[in-house]
Write a structure and sequence with these properties.
Helix 1 runs antiparallel to helix 2. The longest helix has 33 residues. It is built from 2 helices and 20 strands. The strands form 8 sheets. Strands 7, 8, 11, 15 and 18 form a 5-stranded antiparallel sheet that branches. The mean pLDDT is 91. Helices cover 22% and strands 31% of the residues. The chain folds into 2 domains: 115 residues, no CATH class; 136 residues, no CATH class. A hairpin with a 5-residue loop joins strand 9 and strand 10.
């Protein structure tokens, strides 16, 4: 009965954790470039009373053992990097990646981060930055007299300036970065990720390379969260939490009956 209390309590904690993960996914359903999390769980230790294959007193061999599990625990939250849907914005600095690549940005402390959020803007110096003001890396500056910004699928950034007779002038190239294991990236918040030993070393390439993906100007990649799937998962987590709480209640009642036994 004590085992049942602790096992059920671990189940309640695990489903509370799952609810927290689902709530974060739902909260970011409209966050550009957001990738949903999936909570992974594993069973805990088992208390073994008899090993499978052990020999009985009569010399026979036990075909299956006798053991009871001691609950569950969360082991990881895995980012699911499936592509989100593309939304057309017609903003020339909105860029979506049709592939596995990440934009590389420079943080104020000198470190590098990566993002799938392509909602870029211009700062006061004409440089392309994220919504938080982090510079796109390598940096690209747009001339103040630019009348048009054209970003090709291969990452080439061109501008149209007065007196150019319609000829476009290249001002830089957007590069993309990919990882062997993007699920191993560390989430920094602000739609940013950082490299970890689990993600592997960053591999840089041009958007024209199929392994990195191509750029789509005037589009934004939306969150890959499915509200329907999250609501179904939420209902399952709620029912599992209720069942585990019922197991706690039943175990407590059994202990109460045992304590009240009279000779």
């Amino acid at each position: 009965m004590i085992r049942a209390l602790y096992s059920a309590a671990s189940g309640m904690e695990a489903n509370q954790f799952l609810t927290d993960v689902i709530a974060n996914n739902v909260a970011n359903a409209n966050t550009a470039g957001f990738k949903k999390d999936r909570a992974d769980f594993q069973d805990l230790f088992y208390q073994t009373f008899r090993e499978a294959g052990s020999t009985t007193l009569t010399g026979g061999q036990v075909p299956s053992g006798l053991r009871v599990g001691l609950g569950v625990q969360p082991v990881s939250t895995q980012k699911i990097f499936t592509a989100g849907s593309f939304q057309q914005t017609e903003n020339p600095l909105d860029i979506a990646v049709a592939g596995d690549g990440f934009f590389r940005v420079a943080l104020p402390d000198g470190t590098t981060a990566y993002t799938r959020d392509g909602s870029f803007q211009l700062d006061g110096n004409g440089q392309i930055v994220t919504s938080e003001g982090n510079l796109l890396d390598p940096p690209i500056s747009i001339p103040p007299d630019a009348q048009l910004i054209d970003i090709a699928v291969d990452g080439t950034v061109n501008v149209l300036q007065p007196g150019a007779d319609g000829a476009l002038t290249p001002v830089g190239n957007i590069l993309l970065t990919r990882f062997q294991n993007p699920a191993g990236l560390r989430s920094l918040g602000g739609n940013l990720f950082a490299e970890t030993p689990a993600s592997g070393t960053p591999q840089e390439g041009t958007p024209s390379d199929q392994a990195f993906g191509q750029l789509r100007q005037g589009f934004l990649e939306q969150s890959n969260v499915s509200i329907v799937d999250e609501l179904v998962s939420l209902i399952i987590a709620q029912r599992a939490f209720e069942t585990n709480s019922k197991a706690v209640q039943v175990s407590d009642e059994l202990m109460s009956i045992t304590n009240n036994l009279r000779r």
